[in-house]
Design a protein that fits this description.
6 helices; alpha+beta; five-stranded mixed beta sheet
Length: about 170
């Protein structure tokens, strides 16, 4: 998963994935089989019709973000951020082998992560529509998170460090 993510950080829609993989594997101890599998996975992702926007040269990747959320300070990295005149798209890359069949089955930790990013972006871009999406690399599938699921996850952010937080 880490190697797939490293490739996605560096690829554009026109990239030679194998060439990038060759550069990245030099300092890593990876088997040929693992490299081949990762390259194939990334090539499948880049072949998706939805990949055109996500891996365009104008898309921002690995965007550091920090923002206050309640009494906490968020410090995170958004995998892909697409900013337009009135919309923000937050896309997170997940290499989980088990892909949820629908957004309601996404683990709460991932939903909390996306809610935190949405909360931060709302502070920076208060007049923009914000959408959260997960790019599941093993399927490959792009899953948009419904606003109600993100908002519900935002309600739990105030309790991030509270052991008695509501579930």
């Amino acid at each position: 998963g880490t190697f797939v993510h490293a490739l996605l950080e560096r690829c554009s829609i026109k990239s030679d994935v194998q060439e990038i993989a060759d550069v990245l594997t030099a300092p890593r101890q990876l088997t040929t089989e693992l490299i081949t599998q990762a390259v194939a996975e990334v090539e499948q992702v880049l072949a998706m019709p939805e990949a055109v926007d996500i891996f365009a040269e104008t898309a921002l990747r690995e965007v550091g973000v920090t923002a206050p959320i309640g009494n906490q300070q968020l410090l995170g990295v958004i995998d892909c951020l697409i900013v337009s005149a009135n919309q923000i798209r937050i896309i997170d890359f997940k290499s989980n082998r088990v892909v949820p069949s629908e957004p309601s089955n996404i683990p709460s930790g991932i939903l909390g992560q996306m809610a935190a990013y949405a909360t931060a972006m709302q502070q920076i871009y208060p007049d923009h529509d914000i959408t959260c999406e997960i790019l599941w690399t093993s399927a490959p599938t792009l899953m948009q998170l419904p606003h109600d699921i993100v908002r519900q996850a935002q309600q739990t952010l105030a309790y991030l460090d509270d052991p008695n937080r509501p579930s």
